[in-house]
Design brief:
The chain has 350 residues and is an alpha/beta fold. The chain is built from ten helices and 17 strands. The strands form three sheets. Strands 16-15-14-13-9-12-11-10-17 form a nine-stranded mixed beta sheet.
């Protein structure tokens, strides 16, 4: 349900704009394959350009060189601006993608919402502070804005396929989740928000407490945080991040009667079964796959439009974005307090 007083304007086609024209915001559409998955389009501009109900009409960045590069990539069609307020005033924008520096997401999102933009697609992490996250949640919910965070594991085919299988109950309820992210991009708010949000998604509850520890950051400004997270539905999770290993990601979801493993090129289920001879055995099966998938970016835009047109809340909404920020903040507070248990709800203004 949309907020009371929020009137939807359904259109056959919606007008989109992007603010923040570096790679993930403005890159060209390129086919990229991981295993047997087709991931393109995987940038905001390419997704808006490719979507069946979207017209990419404008783009904005403070740097003139990025505007020039955007023009080379996307031609003369989209209008270019070096000021967000000017773009919001000059264009009838239905969907705004925010792909600027992480710490600016909340300010720009609130500006767009106050200007009347009905759909906002925010790059991850949603914010890099709890105060900014709270302010953005308030703005989204007060205005009834359709809002989605680009936590793409919620739409990645292997991850979503595994999620739907777990939700079917075929291997019982979830009891443990382990999310591992290794390599130099195992960072607190950057890719770390993907790791935390995916664990939150599979855990399916609200955090009750967190115990966190940071790996020394070394040459990177951001540390790689790890944590135990206890959820109110009894699920216990381990968020396992380190730069001291090769690039590697994997999520393991342990259920009462089996385990699901999800990684870059696999999505498998392992479960106990009785063979025809009556013996108990442990079986492993690849979850069904297809040759071509709709990209996570396009599915996120579909979700935004459904919400705007009166459908259910987006799957990567402002509240799930807030939860990821809260868990990351709790990890930091716990580490700073000598791995003390940090309980929820988190104190504000700390």
């Amino acid at each position: 349900m949309c907020e009371e007083g929020y009137e939807m304007e359904r259109k056959d086609r919606y007008r989109a704009a992007v603010v923040g024209l570096r790679g993930i915001g403005a890159g060209a559409e390129k086919e990229s394959f991981s295993g047997n998955r087709r991931a393109a389009p995987h940038t905001h501009a390419s997704a808006h350009s490719a979507h069946e109900r979207i017209d990419l009409v404008a783009a904005c960045d403070l740097e003139g060189s990025l505007l020039d590069k955007f023009r080379e990539t996307w031609g003369e069609g989209p209008a270019l601006y070096d000021d967000l307020d000017a773009m919001l005033a000059g264009e009838d924008i239905d969907v705004l993608s925010i792909a600027t520096s992480d710490h600016t997401h909340a300010e720009l999102g609130i500006t767009a919402i106050e200007a009347g933009v009905p759909m906002v697609f925010c790059e991850k992490p949603m914010t890099t502070s709890l105060a900014d996250a709270d302010a953005l949640v308030g703005a989204v919910e007060d205005a009834g804005t359709a809002f989605s965070v680009d936590h793409t594991r919620r739409w990645d085919p292997f991850f979503r396929q595994a999620y739907d299988f777990i939700q079917s109950g075929r291997i019982g309820r979830v009891v443990r989740v382990v999310g591992t992210w290794g390599g130099t991009r195992a960072l607190e708010y950057r890719n770390g928000s993907h790791a935390v949000d995916a664990v939150n998604m599979y855990a399916g509850g609200s955090p009750e407490w967190v115990v966190g520890v940071h790996e020394p950051p070394g040459q990177w400004a951001e540390p790689a945080p790890s944590a135990l997270v206890q959820y109110d539905n009894g699920v216990l999770a381990f968020i396992n991040q380190t730069k001291a290993m090769p690039k590697f990601t994997e999520w393991q979801v342990f259920c009462e009667q089996g385990r699901v493993r999800i990684g870059g090129v696999h999505s498998t289920v392992e479960y106990a079964a009785t063979t025809p001879s009556g013996q108990e055995d442990w079986l492993e099966r690849q979850l069904p796959t297809q040759k071509v998938y709709r990209s996570a970016m396009l599915s996120s835009i579909d979700d935004l439009i459904r919400r705007h047109e009166g459908g259910p809340e987006t799957f990567a909404n402002v509240r799930t974005g807030l939860m990821a920020v809260e868990v990351i903040e709790a990890m930091r507070r716990s580490h700073d307090a000598g791995q003390a248990k940090v309980e929820f709800p988190l104190a504000r203004g700390v």
